[in-house]
């Protein structure tokens, strides 16, 4: 069986700048929708649309756009694809040392330094912050030279001074420990992403990781703080949430399209992860949008 290689992404700063900003129209960044990692810290703003947010071992559903900050070497998937229906996407990427190491020792940068440290686990910002910062992010991308740099520092300061965020991978978390771990876990996560609709045996995924089943189970739990079954079930539930919100499919169809082969098990697992049944989730989502 041929497996996808883990993806290390090499990033070059924009011409005339010490960091990178990219703007993509709808569907234009779909090629990034695979598990990858890079040493650069990344801020991603998705203008509108909805989809799956896959950062570290956290897989969640977003709607009405998104604003996230992803720490250095934290494995993640691109946030948009042909089904996201976003208006645009802006990606900002910079290395922590792009202004030198000494700047992080200054008192003025203390809060930003803490923000960057917190981003190691992945941060998602709330609706109020998304709305407040959209124009600033667009303006940053369009600026050049010193204005571009000053706008980045202003954006980092805004993000560092808000409480309107959630940590995506809270608690015990190891995905950034070593690049070797990233390469192996990216291989595993890409396999899950491409095969979650199928039955995946522990023997099969252990073979991909080149480990025995017991060693793989210990390794996966240490890296993600979840068992392999928990992680795959969560991935399937998040996919079913997206289908329930966006597709006029029956709940039975969604059950099987999401990789569950038993309807009662799907209902029980969905409620375990979301606190509500699939039908209640669809009703509540429809009421929010109506």
TrEMBL record:
Matching Pfam families: HTH_18 (PF12833)
Domain of life per record: Bacteria
Alphabetized SUPFAM superfamilies for the sequence: Homeodomain-like, RmlC-like cupins
InterPro entries referenced in this protein's UniProt entry, alphabetically: Homeodomain-like_sf, HTH_AraC, HTH_AraC-typ_CS, RmlC-like_jellyroll, RmlC_Cupin_sf, Tscrpt_reg_AraC-type_HTH
Family annotation (SMART domains): HTH_ARAC
Record's keyword terms, sorted: DNA-binding, Transcription, Transcription regulation
Annotated ranges, domain HTH araC/xylS-type: 186-284
Signal peptide segment: none
Protein name as annotated: AraC family transcriptional regulator
Gene source species: Cloacibacterium rupense
């Amino acid at each position: 069986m041929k497996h996808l290689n883990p993806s290390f992404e090499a990033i070059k700063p924009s011409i005339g700048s010490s960091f990178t900003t990219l703007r993509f129209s709808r569907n234009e960044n779909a090629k990034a929708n695979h598990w990858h990692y890079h040493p650069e810290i990344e801020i991603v703003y998705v203008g509108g649309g909805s989809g799956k947010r896959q950062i570290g071992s956290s897989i969640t559903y977003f709607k009405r756009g998104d604003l996230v900050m992803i720490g250095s070497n934290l494995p993640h998937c691109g946030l948009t694809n042909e089904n996201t229906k976003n208006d645009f996407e802006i990606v900002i990427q910079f290395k922590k040392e792009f202004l030198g190491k000494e700047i992080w020792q200054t008192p003025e940068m203390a809060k930003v330094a803490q923000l960057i440290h917190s981003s190691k686990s992945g941060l998602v910002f709330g609706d109020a912050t998304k709305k407040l910062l959209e124009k600033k992010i667009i303006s940053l991308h369009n600026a050049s030279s010193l204005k571009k740099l000053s706008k980045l520092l202003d954006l980092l300061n805004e993000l560092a001074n808000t409480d309107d965020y959630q940590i995506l991978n809270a608690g015990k978390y190891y995905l950034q420990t070593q690049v070797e771990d990233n390469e192996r876990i990216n291989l595993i996560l890409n396999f899950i992403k491409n095969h979650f609709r199928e039955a995946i045996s522990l023997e099969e995924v252990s073979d991909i990781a080149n480990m025995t089943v017991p060693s793989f189970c210990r390794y996966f739990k240490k890296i993600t703080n979840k068992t392999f079954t928990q992680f795959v079930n969560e991935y399937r539930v998040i996919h079913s949430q997206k289908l329930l919100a966006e597709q006029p499919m029956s709940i039975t169809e969604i059950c099987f399209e999401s990789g569950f082969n038993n309807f009662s098990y799907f209902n029980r697992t969905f409620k375990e992860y979301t606190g509500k049944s699939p039908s209640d989730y669809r009703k509540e989502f429809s009421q929010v949008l109506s």
